[in-house]
Write a structure and sequence with these properties.
The protein is α+β, with helices and mostly antiparallel strands and about 425 residues long. The protein is built from 15 helices and 13 strands. The chain has helices at about 10-15, 40-45, 60-65, 75-90, 115-130, 145-155, 170-175, 190-195, 200-205, 210-215, 220-230, 235-240, 260-280, 315-330, 360-380, and strands at about 1-5, 25-30, 35-40, 70, 95-100, 100-105, 135-140, 160-165, 245-255, 280-290, 305-315, 340-345, 350. Helix 4 crosses helix 5 (about 115-130) and helix 13 runs antiparallel to helix 14 (about 315-330). The protein is globular.
Length: about 425
Amino acid sequence: MYALVDCNSFFASCEKVFHPGLKGKPVCVLSNNDGCIVALTPEAKALGLRRGDAAFKQSELIRRNGVSVFSNNMVLYAAMSRRITSILRQSIERVESYSIDECFCDLRGYEQHYRLDEFMRGIAEKIGLWTDIPVSVGIAPTKTLAKIGSKFAKKYSAYRSVCMIDNEQKRRKALSLIELEDVWGLGPATCRRLKALGVGSALEFADRPMDWVRRHFNKPGEQTWMELNGISCIDTTEIACRNSITTSRSFGKMIESLGELKECTASFAASCAGTLRSQNSLTGMVSVFVCSNRMREDLEQYWNIGDIRFFSPTSDTIQISQAAIKLVERLYKPGILYKKAGVILRDISAERLYEPELFESQDLRESRIRLSRTLDDINVRYGPKTVSLAVEGYASSTAQSWRPRQEQRSRDYLTSLDGLLTVND
């Protein structure tokens, strides 16, 4: 059996931990540039707010109902995520962090010693007691069914935070109640195709014969079908190694100079390279795109993208950043006010599969990779961008107008001495 531990309204819940007066009140967390709502509490949803809503369009509703709004603070959320994962690993041997707010737990063998639902309910209570973050847990023979179980645990309070799908009757009942769009592994295109083929629910999909599934879908579709039928076959460690890595952001203010565009592109490239190394992968190609403000029809519009392929796959921050800067110089058009840029790493492959080229300097390659990993270690220990490439500019400089707006950002309570909570008499 597998368990999926999912933190409820995670970003908003993290903010409420350090603002206890917000308990039971509507809370929203905005995107990196304070542009749209990315997380919200059930109280905020009850007011009609939805994830993805533009913040400025909902400003009157937010003001009228006293909704507390916070800018995105990924440093704080990542620190809370590590605490929750640590609690899980104290009780469960095999725990896999799937995302910042989700962990898969391998419970195979634990059923011999525990009632799994009560065992995980105890852990959920411990997480709530030690971190004040509410979690929902789904338990099932496969990870896909465990994800479905966690959705029911979150939706229905009678489950007391844990929903276990442990027999055929529960499996069929769960699949009859879940929408196709809510099944992990079924993207929008796959759902549209299923509906065009006359499949209207997750249960109908699971009841189709295997040869029908193989005729109409590729391997991921077949794997999802097997998981819905209780056959475990998805290795989430492979899913975590993404086919592409993107860092893009709208700027706090529109920028015009090539120098500023280079700074932000180098910073995005370094972030992508860090993510690449964290999953022990290499990239074969880097792409960069730039665009103007499409909302400003009074300004000249411009959008362009370019790419460079590497001689051999790499995860070297310097090499990736140099390629990204060359692309920016190629794409730059004077007189344009740029609102957004992004870096995309493509052709991702596992580091263990790398084969050196005949004329490649291995000494230089290995020393640069060691340097990049050393920078990663420093930035993990002391905070993002503690050490960075000079071309990225000074991270805390107010002159960098491309930095995102974060006017309502909370302090880094868990990772910075300056962010420590103070208690008044």
